Amino acid sequence: MESISDEWLAGRLVVEIGGRVSAGVCGTMLAQAGATVVFVEPRDGGTRTGKFCSRDLFAAGKRSLAVSPENAEDRALLERLLRRADLVLTSSDWDFDGGLPALDISASATVCNFTAMGVDHDERGLSEADVQLLSGVAHTSGFPDGPPVALRVPILEYSAGVYGAGACVAALAAMRAAGQPQRIEVSLFECALNALLSFLPSVFQGVDPGRLGNGHPMSAPWNAYRTKDGWLLFCSASDVHWQRFCALLGRPDLAEDERFRRVADRAHHRGEVDAIVSQWTQDHDTATCIRLLSGAGLAGGEIVPLDKLKEEANVRHRGAIIAATAPGTERQMDFPQSVLRARNENVPPPPVIPVPDADRAWLADTEFVPMLQGGQIPDAAGRLPLESVRVIEIGQFTTAPLCARHLAMYGADVMKVEPLSGDAAREWAPMVDGLSLFFALSNSGKTCYKADLKSPDGLKKFKDLIRGADVLVENMKPGSLAALGLDVEKLMAINPSLIYCPITGFGNVSAYPSRPAFDTVVQAMSGMMDANAVDGMPLKAGVSVCDFMGGEVAIFAILAALHHRERTGLGTVFDLSMQDIAVWMTASMWGKRPAEGQGMLRCRDGYVRAGSGLVPEAEALERMTRDEAVAFLAERGVRAVPARSVAEALHSPRAKALGLVRMEKNRHGNDMPQLASPVRMSPTGLRSIRLPEATIDL
């Protein structure tokens, strides 16, 4: 028997006060996993900022309590809930929280606080767009000859919310083991720098990366290409992929050309590679290109408009968009399905969207029993949340490696199993002492093993690993393990209590059962590129948003399933789809017309983004630096934010104060940079960062 998602956190009470989107996202994840989440909202509509701009989206599946800070009855009920809560979600730099000062939160509750730049930052209320600009994320999005683009999809708020949800469940494990409530901090800025991982290796080598449009900083071909009837996204990340494409063209000689032989060579000759691909795509329609690429085991997809998203074949097949009833009416509205999918789980009914204050009486009458009572702290301090958990990772590039890296930080023993040729990311330049910086950043805290799973001996050893493991996470092409004789049934027969988490582009239950996927293809096929379009041109996020969000959702799902297994002994088989996750992230933009323009103004050394209203003396700004322009506009009543490059953000005083980058010595005694977690949790803390161990035979 396997667990189902809406039981994982049953019995846990969460009070969601924070007004940031990230607090709403975190509460939604916890609610989808079975927790009772109280959605605290202002009376009489109140503020319409942050998550309240999409109130129904973030209230769904939760219990509504409307409060006024001045109302004694409201405060009394809210404080009663806070004294019984297991988890409290806040956003201390946001307006709505500011109206609820000095609330009596139980000493036995874990508090998770979401902010833009960290709890000690002076400026309150910084927006998603502000942080994208200050962190360098906007600098990576846009076209080479245009300004930076602050993406309309709130990728950093969602990232912070999902990281926070995982931290909340890790805190429950710490509370159970050591009796200690936790204090969790998650900032959008720290999430942003973690999201920039594929750009950081160049920065560490002294190169400040620019904008590549729909390209990839370390790989080619990887771009949007014109076809006879539209646009195609095509992604190639390894030498094998290039060889297959050259064979498809009937030009195997290109695979041996010195300009294109290795990944780094093709990235250096990006323009020539794109010209070769464009010549081929323009001779075919989009459907033919996708069919031929898929037949060769290569990743490609069409760019789907938001208003056509419900009609996309896999979105329809998986029921990623469902009908929900608008609160207080009979009107049906499009709504994203839960991204938490377990095998053999029936599609849950649409969540109830409560009218404001609908649950006041129920909340007043229900007796909640907190996980910790009286704030007791037994003598078991210092134990990490996943200290006794063993994780097996078969991952490449970003998604599964990101998930396993963060599980290692929570204390898990992570064993990364690679083919004899190694993870393809080991070849991604730049290198330090023969090790890819990208690989080192993506795989800290792990022990790496190499094995031939196609050999009887290698397969036997792998089965032995599974027998003693708690978690298996992988992002292989669907069906890869089954082809080795390890389908889901056999895996669960070997270890019935296993938490098995495959992360795929389109899901295991899919209209595209064997189709490979990369981040950019999923962005295209989820409406995300259309949502972020600039002047009618679809645009991908510069950061690999679908990759890192797939990994983040997997962190949360695994932690929630482990929490449930602790009580029931039940294993879980997931069916996580990057497309489901990306569709969910665009939901706040459904049915809305994107705002025109970005307010980007050119300066002598880059760009600033001006707030609404007329900009005085705009031409004069071109002779100023960004900082001078910000001060100039502030004197004239116009707020502006400078667009920082990746290098500027990484080396900024704020990043240094937060300690996001730490240097570790490799086996040659040379420094290798490592990224800290965007999650801060005390008093338990996280495991110290270490470089991935040298690869050894399984």
Automatic annotation (TrEMBL):
Keyword Transferase belongs to the record: yes
Pfam families tied to this protein: CoA_transf_3
Entry's Gene Ontology molecular function annotations: CoA-transferase activity
Superkingdom per UniProt: Bacteria
InterPro entries in alphabetical order: CoA-transferase_III_domain (IPR050483), CoA-Trfase_fam_III (IPR003673), CoA-Trfase_III_dom3_sf (IPR044855), CoA-Trfase_III_dom_1_sf (IPR023606)
Keywords associated with the record: Transferase
Protein name: Crotonobetainyl-CoA:carnitine CoA-transferase CaiB-like acyl-CoA transferase
Organism of this sequence: Pseudorhizobium flavum
Upper classification of the organism: Bacteria, Pseudomonadati, Pseudomonadota, Alphaproteobacteria, Hyphomicrobiales
